[in-house]
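hi! just following up on the protien thing from before. the input was this:
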Amino acid sequence: MNAPTRILDTMTELHRFLFCSAHGSHGEWLSEALRGAGVVLQEAGRPAQLQQRIGDLDPQLVLLDFSGASDGRPDSPDDGGIAQAVDLTRMLKRVAPKLPLVAVGTMARADGMKAAIRAGVHDFIDMASNHEEALEVVRRVLDHASAPDAAPMRHGRFIALIGARVGVGCSTLSAHLTQLAQEMRAGPRTAKQTKGNEAAAPGHVALLDLGLPAGDGLLYLNTQGHFHFAEAVQNLRRLDETLVHTAMTRTTSGLTVVPLPQDLGEMRAVAAADALSLTDRLRAFFDLIVADLGGFSNPAFVASLARAADEVWLVADQSVGAIVSLANLLHDLDEKGVERGHMHLVLNCYDPRYGMAAEQIAKRFDVPLLATLPDRPLAMLSATNQGKLILDTGRSDPYVRALQPLAERLMVSQAAAARAAQGWLGRFMGKH
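and the predicted 3d structure came back as:
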């Protein structure tokens, strides 16, 4: 539909939003959602026609329909709508590079969401959410567009958890630790948070679920990951807050999870340098990043991340196999230049009755003992079979109590690092 010119004369005090879509119901939904911020003008046409209309209307923001099918249903096959939206996005980025672009669709339609992100939109409105969330997206984009460019100030801590061998509980520890740290950082879960990633708020903590067997972290957190580590590396050049908060998987508490790809062969194309660049970039968006490297089969890859980490936690248990594997792991890390100074030992499934004491193991390998976590197989299995963490089924469980100081250590260390970085930046800016 074309907005009459006379209407534009009454809009001088309002934002004008151009919505590129043939779906009338979608336009009505947006108009209702955004009426507190401006007026939605809907257009349906080819790129050349819309280019002219943009010149006439001079919108402050353009919304593009990535819902796909003509009926707007996420389960319907795409009839070319997503491809058309991609073409429009590319045209607008070429002719009006400073014009903010927001995709409109549903996160239930993964092909539309991914296409929007790869096309380079600035943010994404999920029509399955409420009007307040859509309005918040638009206001955030407009505020960012009007603000001067600035580099991200945050530089989060990076912790690498390396299992001595498969089966010592490294992935279990990583999932519980990051979930607890996220809850401590963001506060308790609220009644508004429901099942599904679409309800999660942007998180402060990220888990790189790189342990083997692949996907155990996602399994323990009862979620599914669509945007994986290899894909994040491929999109490194355009990794920004929009990509982080719309493409990456989040739990209901806001914990971000980046898993391995289902086809592990895709990781062959990921160089260690690219992985380091990704973790360094993610530090700009998260206060804490934990990499689960339990059982990862590429020693050079593991060592490269360990060298870049602020701390390395070696996870083992009291079994003979784990002790021998720990010796081999330390030998490999030493040969690859990983300093012992930031290594710590975590003994999982620990019970003094099993044999060698924790202090003896730490002294034998000359690695400081960070913690012992009790053996809780029945409680763990019961929680996992319910699709939950033991955090959800028993807050007073001995495992959770033993985990609490570790999460507190990470958050306190992160806060201290942030204060130190802020002080350095202040001194630097004061001299320039």
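The chain has two domains: 15-146, 157-187+200-411.
Residues 157-187+200-411 form a domain with the Rossmann fold fold (CATH 3.40.50.300).
cheers
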